Amino acid sequence: MAIxxxxxxxxxxxxxxxxxxxxxxxxxxxxxxxxxxNAEDFLQRVRNAYEMARQSVEAExxxxxxxxxxANTTGASTKAEPAQRQEYRQEYRNDNPRSDNxxxxxxxxxxxxxxxxxxxxxxxxxxxxxxxxxxxxxxxxTNTSQLSPKQASELxxxxxxxxxxxxxxxx
Length: 171
Fold this sequence. Notes:
- The chain has a two-stranded antiparallel sheet with strand order 1-2.
- Helix 3 packs parallel to helix 5 (149-163).
- The chain is of the alpha+beta class.
- The chain has two domains: 2-89; 107-163, no CATH class.
- It is built from five helices and two strands.
């Protein structure tokens, strides 16, 4: 009687301009039931399948990172790696403590976020910058130009809702 070993890997990465990319690889292996008699052989077969799935996911995600398929997927920079790609790695790594809030004062919303906020403000009837600054001050304790990337993202959601009439931006 055969057994089925199913190993899966899934990973999602953040991309510039509020985007993300994800990849998933699932590998199913049929093996003889006797494999369960030797735990080390079984575990090695699972490890090998997992590693193949992980490499497949990383290779797919490399196409979405700056630099394309040749991008360094280990997170470690090399001397030959362009400065722009090193900057991307620092900004979008999941363990970057500055990526979630502005409590350290080190990061503010990106220029693209600020431009998008400005374009949304124009689309919300009757909304003025003074009102928006007061709204930001009451919600996050800072003005519009000093929002963290996360706060700017929340503001963008609020402005989209205001533009569609689902929410009102007021203090």
